[in-house]
């Protein structure tokens, strides 16, 4: 699309506060996932892909290289 991608860096403490302040399960889950990613943890989705017969997703970097590199 030619639009720049904005990256926002959020301190881990702010993510913890967001998770604690969440008022519904969806927001609490989203904040928890952001916190998990901020810590550099990786979620292995291999088993889920095998069970659901889906292809593993690409990282944002891989997607951008494929999309913009062509």
Residue fraction in strands: under 5%
Q: Could you report the average pLDDT, rounded to the nearest whole number?
A: 86
Count of helix runs: 4
Please provide the count of β strands. Answer: 0
Query: What proportion of the residues is helical, as a percent range?
Result: 55-70%
Cα shape: extended
Query: Structural class of the secondary structure composition?
Result: mainly alpha
Report Rg.
16 Å
Low-pLDDT sequence parts: none
Helices and strands, in order, run as: HHHH
First-residue to last-residue Cα separation: 13 Å
Major sheet: size, sense and barrel closure? none
Give a description of the structure.
The protein starts with 11 loop residues before the first helix and ends with a helix. It is mostly helical and 70 residues long. α1 packs antiparallel against α2 (25-38). It is extended. 57% of the residues lie in helices and 0% in strands. 0% of the residues are buried.
Question: How are the SSEs placed, and which strands pair?
Answer:
Blueprint: H1 12-21, H2 25-38, H3 46-52, H4 60-68
Helix pairs in contact: 1-2
């Amino acid at each position: 699309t030619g639009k720049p991608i904005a990256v926002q860096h959020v301190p881990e403490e702010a993510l913890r506060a967001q998770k604690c302040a969440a008022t519904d399960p969806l927001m609490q889950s989203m904040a928890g996932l952001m916190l998990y990613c901020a810590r550099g943890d990786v979620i292995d989705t291999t088993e889920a892909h095998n069970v659901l017969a889906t292809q593993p997703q690409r990282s944002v970097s891989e997607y951008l290289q494929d999309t913009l590199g062509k």
